[in-house]
């Protein structure tokens, strides 16, 4: 296919998702790419081997299968390059290791994914990196926290479990003045609803386990970098030896084709449920950026194109000694919402949120938090399930 025949970048998101990263006529017209299982790659002669003078040299450095997915993600993210790793957590940790050295200072948002915090407080600190957490609402005031050795700022917007928004352009502007790298976990929004690199972020991180895979059966992460930071990321990942398995890559690429239409459903259902929850006497507060009542709604409306299917609400337990029992009765009363970690799959999920690890943001919500992953079921059925759970909680 000639360049003039290739799909234009002006095409709609769903059209691009269907076509991105792979040309069927490069492989005899088969609409899906072949899954290449490989470690060793042969060279035609000694000179080619000595110079590494061919596209593929060893499977950790890429295969046609991994190229199909990284090319698609590069197009969606607007990235210079992408590496694939075995999980979303690995995607964040590899990115941090790529740009931080002993003696460096890193600013990490306090609403960061809990397992990333654990990595920062154990591995990074052990490696001699100074880790400091900041309030997600800090905006340009983050400049007061910069030190001469600040080398990286990590964002996650919305924040894990409580969905605090961040003023990404304001933080990026400060980081640029101090020549610090900005990394961002953008799993909640995906590049369909927010493109970090378009806002000056250097590195966009995705837990592809979630919406790109979409079926709760794959672990995979992607790290996409701009031109300024790509070389260092690629070198670090090569040194660490991380790579994703070909079958997992294939499944994520297949899931990517339908991510747009799935996200539309996740969004519409989550918004309907969030609005319903706001009207319930048993709910103190709903945490979902698309709601006008949410504290960070204006930032979300300014920068984001949509909202995905994950939200939290505060179960009204103020003054009750049996708060934990009430929360567990609610969760145990659910039938359609499964009790499980992660999100982004087709089934709805629920869990109780633990905020005990936060150091800047205290849990001042007045009750226990329940997080919901709103799946692809019918909204009326999910609401009926929530009604049953609230009834169960009343008797606790």
Short description:
This is Cystathionine beta-lyase. With 396 residues, the chain is α/β, with parallel strands linked by helices.
Structure overview:
The protein is an alpha/beta fold. It folds into two domains: 11-256, Type I PLP-dependent aspartate aminotransferase-like (Major domain) (Aspartate Aminotransferase, domain 2, 3-Layer(aba) Sandwich); 260-394, Aspartate Aminotransferase, domain 1. The protein is built from 13 helices and twelve strands. It has helices at 13-19, 46-51, 64-77, 88-99, 114-126, 168-177, 190-193, 227-240, 246-256, 259-278, 297-303, 323-332, 379-394, and strands at residues 81-85, 105-109, 130-134, 150-156, 181-185, 203-207, 221-225, 283-287, 310-316, 338-339, 349-352, 367-373. The chain has a seven-stranded mixed beta sheet, with helices on both faces. Strands 8-9-12-11-10 form a five-stranded mixed beta sheet, covered by helices on one side. The model is unreliable at 1-7 (pLDDT under 50).
